[in-house]
Write a structure and sequence with these properties.
Layout lengths: L7 E5 L3 H13 L3 E6 L2 H11 L3 E4 L8 H10 L6 E5 L3 H12 L4 E4 L7 H20 L9 H4 L2 H6 L18 E6 L3 H8 L11 E5 L6 H11 L3 E4 L10 E4 L5 E5 L3 E5 L11 H12 L3 E5 L8 H10 L2 E5 L8 H8 L5 E3 L4 H9 L2
Parallel strand pairs: 1-2, 1-3, 3-4, 4-5, 6-7, 6-12, 7-9, 8-9, 12-13, 13-14
Antiparallel strand pairs: 10-11
Length: 359
C-alpha cells in the first residue's frame, strides 16, 4: 500500500510565539510545516512559491490582514484551503465571520489559557487534516441538484407526512424549521438564509458548530442580508415565524412547550456544545410531524440522532447534496441511515424549504 505524504502547511501569524506553538503542534501530529509568515504579503508569497496543502491564517496582521489574504488568494486563483486561527474579541469575531464568508475552510479559536492548549491542538490538527482531504477531493458540479427541487412531483413522491405527534402546543398546519451545520456552514447559511421569506412556518432554529463568542457576529451578518430577523438566541426567548434563532457557541439550545428557548450549560455531547441533536429532540416533542429538519454541510454526525426522532414522529428531513457541501459528513450520515426525504444542492434548498413549510 502506498504511503500517503504528510500534509504540507504554511503558517501565517504575526506572533513569533504563536507560530512556534502552531508549528510544534502540527509537526508533533506528523504534519509538515513548509513555511512561516509574519504578515499577509509574506503568506501570499509563500503560498505562490510552495503551493501548500493548507494555509493556517491569523486575521489580525500588519499590512494585509487575513481577510485581505483570502481575497487575494481568490483573485490569484490559488485554491488553497485556509484554516483561520484567531483570538476572540468583538472585532475579531466580525473579521472571522467575514473570513468564512470569503471562503475560509474553518475557524479554530486560539487558546486563552494553558489549560485549553491540548483541546486547541486536537482541533487544529483535525481541521488541517480535513481541509487537506477536502482539497484532494474532486467536487462534482453544483448545478445538478437545482433541477430536483423545481419538480412538485418530486416532492409528492417522497414519504407522506404522518399525523402530528407533538404535545399540541404548536399551531396546527405550521412547521418549525431546524437547520444544523458545521464546517462550511457559515457560507451555506449566507446563501440560504437571504433567500428564505418572512414569515416562515412557526419559526427557524439554527445550530452551527462554532467557537464561543463568534456566533453573535455570524447572526449579525446573516440578519443584515435576510428578510427573516436573525439573531443569537437568548434564554427564555419565544420562537416566532419572523425570526431565525442561532444557538450561541458554548451553550445548548433547548426548546420547551410553546416554543420557549432555554440556553443551558449542560456538558458537551460528543464534544459539541451546542449539540443539534438536543435541539431537534426538543422540537419534535412540541411540533411532532410538523418538524422540518435541514442538515447542511459539516463533519461528523450531529443531527443523525435528531433525524431518527423526526422520522419516527412523521416529520420531514432534507439534506444538502455532496455537490455543494464543503464537507458531506453530516448529510451523508443521515443519507446512509435512510432517513432523508430529499437531497438537494444548496442552490435548490430555499425553494424546497418553502414548499415543505408552506410558509
Amino acid at each position: 500500500m502506498p504511503t500517503v505524504a504528510a500534509a504540507r502547511v504554511v503558517i501565517a501569524d504575526d506572533s513569533a510565539l504563536m507560530r512556534s506553538v502552531l508549528s510544534a503542534a502540527l509537526r508533533d501530529a506528523g504534519i509538515e510545516v513548509v513555511g512561516q509568515a509574519a504578515d499577509g504579503d509574506e503568506a501570499l508569497a509563500l503560498c505562490e512559491r510552495l503551493a501548500p496543502d493548507v494555509l493556517s491564517l491569523d486575521l489580525a496582521m500588519p499590512g494585509r490582514d487575513g481577510v485581505g489574504v483570502l481575497r487575494e488568494l481568490r483573485s490569484r486563483r490559488l485554491q488553497i484551503p485556509v484554516v483561520v486561527v484567531s483570538a476572540f474579541s468583538a472585532a475579531a469575531g466580525a473579521r472571522a465571520v467575514d473570513a468564512l464568508a470569503e471562503g475560509a475552510f474553518d475557524l479554530v479559536a486560539k487558546p486563552t489559557s494553558s489549560g485549553e492548549l491540548d483541546a486547541f491542538t486536537r482541533e487544529l490538527v483535525d481541521r488541517v487534516q480535513l481541509a487537506r482531504a477536502t482539497r484532494r477531493r474532486n467536487a462534482p458540479s453544483r448545478g445538478a441538484g437545482a433541477r430536483r427541487a423545481a419538480s412538485p412531483a418530486a416532492l409528492r413522491r417522497r414519504r407522506p407526512v404522518a399525523p402530528p405527534a407533538g404535545d399540541g402546543t404548536a399551531k396546527a398546519g405550521h412547521r418549525v424549521v431546524v437547520i444544523t451545520c458545521s464546517t462550511g456552514g457559515p457560507r451555506a447559511l449566507a446563501e440560504l438564509l437571504p433567500r428564505l421569506p418572512s414569515p416562515l412556518g412557526d419559526g427557524t432554529l439554527i445550530v452551527q458548530h462554532m467557537p464561543e463568542g463568534f456566533t453573535a457576529s455570524l447572526a449579525d451578518r446573516l440578519d443584515r442580508a435576510s428578510s427573516l430577523k436573525v439573531g443569537e438566541a437568548h434564554d427564555r426567548e419565544r420562537l416566532d415565524a419572523a425570526h431565525a434563532l442561532l444557538a450561541p457557541g458554548g451553550q445548548h439550545m433547548r426548546v420547551s412547550a410553546g416554543g420557549v428557548v432555554r440556553l443551558t450549560d449542560e456538558p458537551p455531547v460528543g464534544g459539541l456544545r451546542p449539540r443539534a441533536d438536543l435541539t431537534i429532540r426538543d422540537v419534535v416533542k412540541v411540533w411532532g410531524a410538523r418538524t422540518l429538519l435541514v442538515v447542511l454541510t459539516g463533519m461528523g454526525s450531529d443531527g443523525l440522532d435528531g433525524a431518527v426522532e423526526v422520522h419516527n414522529a412523521g416529520g420531514r428531513v432534507i439534506v444538502e447534496a455532496a455537490s455543494s457541501c464543503v464537507v458531506h459528513g453530516m448529510p451523508r450520515a443521515v443519507l446512509d441511515a435512510g432517513l432523508a426525504d430529499g437531497e438537494y444542492d444548496l442552490s435548490a434548498l430555499p425553494e424546497v424549504i418553502v414548499a415543505e413549510v408552506g410558509r
